[in-house]
RNA sequence: GGUGGGGUAGCUCAGCUGGUUAGAGCGCAGGACUCAUAAUCCUGAGGUCGAGAGUUCAAGUCUCUCUCCCACUACCA
């Protein structure tokens, strides 16, 4: 009945999640809004038998990295080395199944970035212009707009940022601030200097971009509307270089070091998306894979489906800026086919904030509860339609009710009962009846729905179906009641136990993309070989386990979260209500 | 200010191109069962669908006005 039960055409699917910035360990919102859903999608597509490549990397350039390194008292290179390793480890701790977790600072990305730059310039899409920037003598650096503060020329607010006044909301230009100072050092010894930068002439690409956007049929409305809005307002040419030391050196049209551009590098938003490609090249170099079939439409990538995952703030860059780079090169690069944008996870309805210590970061979270529990909760409550509030109470509820009670207890009760009454083996005897027909139909209907939701990247709905499938197992056991039949008709009891064990196996198989560790525990306990753990074999699941197969009962799959733990976490992390 | 998203049961959220008594999970109340991590199963009580007006035989679903929250607004990424 579903496409999961008939052989599918294998697809080649390239998946990227927005690159996490190097500036610190990421919080749960970053995890839930790009890396984790991309991972789940990658795992599902692999289980369905597709050829999947999931690429991610740290985004390492830009002013914040330099400032963070300075604060830590180490070089930017050393800082990025440390933080890349920290992020790689926290990704591994959350079981993110990257095929490659690279770095935007890799030589491959630098070479690609410079190549794109000279090609775009050759095509007349880049030109040098002079602009005015704020320079801080005390800091010895140019300051991005956001790092310049001063008195707002509009409302006289004294701590207005150079890009926007937090008091009156007006968009500002830092050179208009009254009595400007550096927010980095607090120094008022700042001046306005003229500086030369490269501009990407996005305005020249506007018509091509519009045509391409209008061709897209699989983008969510959010993405299309954001892209068209920018196009309607008229794309501005965008500067793609900055006055910084840390980054990729600027080249001329021939690809040689560009005269007069010492101390300037490419803007991080120019090179970060290119790092998707660079990281793929690094993956290929390391593993012997072919990168071109994923990215070059003249080398097979025309058969690749490219899916991007990101937060809603990233949509414009992925639907306009990066496509400008790729299309403007005139080279046969693969463009995104579809993208999934997420809203934010909020902390009790407010923002996550590092400075006011609001929220939970990945390294802290994994110390509190296992990866599986976070993965389940964050995906079951993914911020798909709007921002989604994180609360400890909801987290506790997800873990205890969905995982421990509905799934964990089901596996436990059926395996323990098998051990006590049927010698820990899949029993023979009896024949399937009404109860079995009911549960098979119920589960098959929901399986088809679940898979179609995953394919549509509707994670909340997919997980809701998964949970309903687990719940159907409990309902089945209540109906079949093998413990009652056992007293008078052991064969009848055997039917219920056999079905129960087959349900447990199915539950483990479908749970793999979300809670891989618990799923493995279940499948190992039931002796399911790896080759039977894929998602092409749902058909016939109800009789999948061979009669006589010895099974064990897994250790407690999910420890419950106690009320006193919630109280302690709330105290530790300041949850429980908005903070001023 | 502009653009986009959102305001639906105590809580977190579904509700497609308008159509029978507005749904789910959690929580709560009652009952059943006893294989199981005091788990599970069944039943039930909870909503003037942010406010107001309009279109329509019919609106949570379309239009207008108002209001509250969030994001983006191009040099933070």
Summed up:
This protein has a 5-stranded parallel sheet with strand order 3-2-1-13-14, with helices on both faces. The two termini are 54 Å apart. It has 580 residues and is of the alpha/beta class.
Description:
Belongs to the class-I aminoacyl-tRNA synthetase family. MetG type 1 subfamily. ATP binds at residue 354. Residues 13-414 form the Methionyl/Leucyl tRNA synthetase domain. The structure is a single chain. With 580 residues, this protein is α/β, with parallel strands linked by helices. Helix content is 46%, strand content 14%. The protein is built from 18 helices and 16 strands. The strands form five sheets. The protein has a five-stranded parallel beta sheet with strand order 3-2-1-13-14, with helices on both faces. Helix 11 (371-380) packs across helix 12 and helix 12 runs parallel beside helix 14 (459-480). 47% of the residues are buried. The protein binds one RNA strand of 77 nucleotides through helix 6, strand 10, helix 7, helix 9 and helix 12.
Overall morphology: elongated
Q: What is the radius of gyration?
A: 27 Å
Whole-number total of structural domains: 3
Count of beta strands: 16
Structural class: alpha/beta
CATH architecture group name of the largest domain: 3-Layer(aba) Sandwich
The first-to-last residue Cα distance is 54 Å
Task: Going across the biggest sheet, name each strand in turn.
Answer: 3-2-1-13-14
Level-1 CATH class name of the largest domain: Alpha Beta
Subcellular location: Cytoplasm
Binding site for ATP: 354
Family: Belongs to the class-I aminoacyl-tRNA synthetase family. MetG type 1 subfamily.
Motif ('KMSKS' region): 351-355
């Amino acid at each position: 009945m579903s496409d999961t039960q008939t052989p599918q055409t294998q697809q080649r699917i390239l998946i990227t999640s927005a690159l996490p910035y190097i500036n610190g360990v990421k919080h749960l919102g970053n995890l839930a809004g790009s890396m984790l859903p991309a991972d789940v999608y990658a795992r599902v597509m692999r289980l369905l038998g597709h050829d999947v490549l999931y690429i991610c990397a740290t985004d390492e350039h830009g002013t914040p990295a330099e400032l963070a390194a300075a604060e830590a008292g180490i070089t930017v290179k050393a800082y990025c080395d440390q933080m890349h390793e920290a992020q790689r480890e926290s990704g591994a701790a959350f079981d993110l199944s990257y095929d490659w977790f690279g770095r935007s600072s890799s030589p491959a990305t630098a070479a690609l970035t410079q190549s794109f730059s000279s090609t775009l310039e050759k095509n007349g899409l880049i030109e040098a212009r002079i602009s005015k920037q704020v320079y801080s003598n005390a800091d010895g650096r140019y300051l991005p707009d956001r790092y310049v503060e001063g008195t707002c020329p509009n409302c006289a607010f004294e701590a207005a940022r150079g890009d926007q006044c937090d008091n009156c909301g007006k968009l500002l230009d830092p050179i208009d601030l009254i009595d400007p100072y550096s927010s980095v050092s607090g120094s008022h010894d700042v001046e306005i200097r003229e500086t030369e930068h490269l501009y990407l002439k996005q305005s020249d690409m506007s018509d091509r971009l519009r045509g391409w956007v209008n061709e897209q049929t699989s983008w969510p409305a959010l993405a299309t509307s954001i892209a068209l809005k920018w196009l309607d307002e008229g794309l501005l040419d965008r500067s793609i270089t900055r006055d910084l030391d840390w980054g990729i050196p600027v080249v001329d049209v021939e690809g040689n070091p560009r005269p007069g551009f010492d101390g300037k590098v490419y803007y991080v938003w120019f090179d970060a998306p290119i790092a998707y490609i660079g990281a793929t090249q690094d993956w290929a170099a390391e593993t012997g894979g072919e990168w071109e079939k994923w990215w070059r439409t003249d080398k097979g990538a025309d058969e690749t489906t490219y899916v991007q995952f990101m937060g809603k703030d990233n949509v414009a860059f992925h639907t306009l800026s990066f496509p400008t780079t790729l299309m403007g090169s005139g080279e046969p690069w693969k463009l995104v086919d579809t993208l999934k944008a997420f809203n934010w996870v909020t902390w009790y309805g407010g923002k996550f904030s590092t400075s006011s210590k609001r929220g939970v970061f990945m390294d802290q979270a994994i110390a509190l509860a296992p990866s599986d529990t976070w993965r389940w909760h964050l995906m079951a409550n993914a911020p798909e339609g709007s921002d989604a509030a994180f609360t400890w109470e909801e987290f506790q509820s997800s873990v205890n009710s969905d995982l421990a009670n509905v799934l964990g207890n089901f596996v436990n009760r059926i395996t323990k009962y098998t051990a006590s009454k049927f010698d820990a083996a899949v029993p023979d005897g009896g024949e399937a009846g009404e109860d079995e027909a009911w549960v098979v139909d119920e589960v098959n209907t929901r399986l088809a729905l679940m898979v179609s939701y995953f394919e549509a990247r509707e994670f909340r709905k997919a997980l809701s179906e998964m949970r309903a499938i687990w719940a159907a197992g409990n309902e089945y056991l209540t109906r079949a009641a093998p413990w009652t039949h056992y007293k008078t008709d052991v064969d009848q009891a055997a039917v219920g136990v056999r079905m129960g064990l087959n349900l447990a196996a199915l539950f483990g198989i479908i749970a793999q993309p979300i809670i891989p560790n618990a799923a493995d525990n279940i499948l190992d306990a039931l002796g399911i070989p790896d080759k039977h753990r894929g998602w092409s074999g749902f058909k016939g699941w109800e009789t999948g386990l061979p009669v006589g197969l010895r099974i064990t009962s897994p250790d407690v799959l999910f420890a419950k979260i106690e009320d006193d733990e919630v109280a302690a976490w709330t105290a530790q992390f300041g949850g429980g209500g908005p903070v001023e």
